[in-house]
Amino acid sequence: MFSTRRHVLFAAIAASATLGAVPAFAQDDYPTKPVTVIVSYPPGGDTDAIARLLAEKLGERLKQPVVIENKPGAGGALGNTYVGRAKADGYTLLFTPNPFTTAPMVMKLSPSASYDVLNGFEPIINTATQPLVLVANPAAGFKTVPEMIAAAKAGKAVTYASPGAGSPMHILGEWLNQAAGVKITHVPYRGVGPSVTDVVAGHVNTAWVTLGPVRQYIDTGKLIPLAIGDAKRLTLAPDVPTLRELGYTDVVVGSWNGFFAPKGTPSHIVARLNSELNDILKSQEVTTKLATFGALPAGGAAGNLGKINANDYAVLGKVIRDLNIQAD
């Protein structure tokens, strides 16, 4: 009797162990086919280039192709919405900069192009930060933010370029206007490239941009860096003060990028992608390449990106409403 019971018990334990092992084996199967990463902007810009860099490295680690698909339109909303409605199986991901958070606030989106910023996606990882820098053409007549504000208050017509109405650069420019009590005129462009071209040519006095596109012009003296929009100085440009240091303590707008998956993507897939991308971001090759875009590797837990997104939604959302910032 005892022997029979013991055999039954061992059989039950073995069956239980086998059943418990099934999810683990199933989890290890991902991915079994190519993974598509949607970039909601055209090829050629920083976002696209960083996405392709990380996708190549991720594909090597996953042993499956990771393919970039550009879906530009509606300030990024078109591609964002597409991913938000995709199958939550880990085979369709979104790589996006932080206009992901603010686009629905500054644009009049139709229901077919709308998405839930806070609850419609699974954050995977904050891949990098790209602090915003204010640069000026030397002919503008000022070399510091206090000099620029003084010129504006004295009645001089001062302008600033951004890569588009409703962009983080636009939000930062208008927030500084409010904090300083001036009206520096916003000149929106369709992308970073044209805004940089025109500030170098002197058609606009200043521009808010990421460091990568203007680094060569700073190094050659064709542009003067005035301030950093982030909370702390940029290690890639350590001599440039922050707006906070200059007395505008609340005016902080950074630029970040990261990976999201559709809501409901299995947690083990999110964890796998987070782990692989964290390792990729530790690579010296990747760090060096990111620096050419004025970007610094971030990484960390998936929840970090969720917190950053939620903070931007609250803080920048209030600025957008208070200043009535809208895209064209």
TrEMBL record:
Q: Does the keyword Transmembrane apply?
A: no
Which InterPro entries does the UniProt entry name for this protein? BUG, Bug_dom1, TAT_signal
UniProt keywords, alphabetically: Signal
- Signal sequence region: 1-26
Gene3D superfamilies assigned: Bordetella uptake gene, domain 1, Periplasmic binding protein-like II
KW Chloroplast (keyword) present: no
In terms of domain of life, where is this protein from?
Bacteria
Coiled coil regions in record? none
So what family is this one in? Belongs to the UPF0065 (bug) family.
Please state what the protein is called.
Answer: Tripartite tricarboxylate transporter substrate binding protein
* Organism from which the protein derives: Variovorax dokdonensis
